């Protein structure tokens, strides 16, 4: 499957089945901490970046399997993407279809930049939990940290989230990611807290950079810092960063892709084999395998019901 991935354990959503609504890397932002790499050209224009027919075929075959297996029963079905999922014009049809295919609640992981558009807000009303991001309310920091597509502003992002809260009856869990030296100074924290009081999310989730992003200047703040500022955001604020899982791996994504390729040159592996052998997170493994497959660096085949990944012949030397 190219569009459906998982279910994978998610810190915020339990067992989450992901639906990728845009190809790598289609996004309205180019955040310096993004783990998916650079956005070559941030876009704010919506289109069927993955056609509805293709998404429909895959989600139907996932939830109505023809091979006698049971459909997945995740804690959440999560609309995400290798970029910004609300950019896909097929969003309302995907939401309606998933609601008929599965009783699992729907979550939307989004950077929130398109909620200024009433059309986009009307398309998400049946979603159960929306998890938008808001890292700054200052235009200069927005340009330095989130590097938006032309025409997008921090003020527009906040206005869109305020409107979303007015119209949307489900839960909003707002994530704020702090980068050392960019959005962690006292005045910005006060401004963010004021924006949160306007937006009134059900939860405010404080996070920081845990893995190398696009730029090395994306540096984390400490857990102690997050604990100190948490009360500023009120009783609905919580710290969601997992330093424990991040502390051991500061390897850039290119290096991790190389390690996966080197392992697969030696022997075919399942995603689980790679997670165990290389100490990777499940969601991260799936993303990196997707990326390598998209680039034609690896291929997969099924053996006794398990999907094995290999490096095609002629793509590098075989290992001894
Ligand atoms: S919004 Fe998300 S996908 Fe887009 S650049 Fe930022 S972190 Fe990456």
Helix content: 25-40%
Helix tally?
11
The CATH architecture of the largest domain can be given as Alpha-Beta Barrel
Fourth-tier CATH superfamily name of the largest domain: Aldolase class I
Return the domain count: 2
Strand content: 15-25%
Mean pLDDT across residues? 88
Number of strands: 10
Strand order of the largest sheet: 1-2-3-4-5-6-7-8
Please give the CATH class of the largest domain: Alpha Beta
The coarse overall form would be: globular
The end-to-end span amounts to: 32 Å
* Biggest sheet statistics: 8 strands, mixed
Task: Assign the CATH topology of the largest domain.
Answer: TIM Barrel
Structural account:
This protein has 320 residues and is α/β, with parallel strands linked by helices. The chain has 2 domains: 4-247, Aldolase class I (TIM Barrel, Alpha-Beta Barrel); 251-320, Orthogonal Bundle (Arc Repressor Mutant, subunit A), CATH 1.10.10. The protein is 35% helix and 17% strand. It has helices spanning 52-63, 91-101, 118-123, 139-146, 154-167, 186-199, 223-229, 243-246, 253-266, 271-278, 282-294; strands spanning 4-10, 14-20, 76-80, 106-110, 129-132, 171-178, 203-208, 237-239, 299-303, 306-310. The strands form 2 sheets. The chain has an 8-stranded mixed sheet, with helices on both faces. Strands 9-10 form a two-stranded antiparallel sheet. α1 (52-63) packs parallel to α2 (91-101). Iron/sulfur cluster binds at residues 27, 29-31, 34, 36, 39, 83-84, 111.
């Amino acid at each position: 499957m190219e569009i459906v991935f998982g279910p994978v354990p998610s810190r915020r959503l339990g067992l989450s089945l992901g639906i990728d609504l845009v190809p790598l890397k289609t996004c309205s932002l180019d955040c310096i901490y993004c783990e998916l790499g650079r956005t070559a050209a941030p876009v704010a224009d919506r289109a069927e970046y993955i056609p509805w027919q293709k998404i429909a075929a895959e989600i139907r075959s996932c939830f109505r399997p023809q091979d006698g297996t049971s459909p997945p029963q995740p804690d959440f079905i999560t609309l995400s993407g290798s970029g910004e999922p609300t950019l896909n014009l097929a969003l309302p049809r995907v939401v309606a279809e998933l609601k008929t295919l599965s009783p699992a609640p729907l979550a939307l992981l989004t950077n929130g930049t398109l909620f200024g558009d009433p059309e986009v807000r009307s398309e998400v009303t049946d979603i159960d939990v929306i998890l938008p991001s808001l890292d700054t309310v200052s235009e200069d920091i927005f340009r330095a940290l989130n590097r938006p597509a032309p025409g997008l502003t921090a003020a527009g992002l906040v206005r869109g989230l305020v409107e979303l809260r007015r119209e949307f009856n489900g839960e909003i869990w707002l994530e704020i990611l702090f980068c050392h030296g960019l959005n962690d100074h006292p005045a910005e924290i006060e401004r963010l807290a004021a924006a949160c009081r306007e937006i009134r999310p059900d939860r405010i989730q404080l996070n920081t950079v845990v893995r190398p992003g696009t730029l090395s200047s994306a540096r984390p703040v400490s857990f102690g810092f997050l604990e100190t500022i948490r009360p500023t955001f009120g009783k609905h604020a919580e710290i969601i960063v997992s330093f424990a899982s991040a502390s051991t791996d500061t390897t850039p994504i290119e290096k991790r892709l190389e390690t996966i390729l080197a392992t697969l040159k030696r022997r075919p592996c399942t995603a689980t084999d790679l997670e165990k052998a290389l100490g990777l997170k499940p969601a991260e493994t799936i993303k990196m395998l997707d990326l390598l497959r998209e680039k034609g660096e690896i291929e997969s085949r099924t053996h006794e019901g398990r999907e094995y990944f290999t490096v095609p012949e002629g793509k590098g030397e075989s290992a001894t």
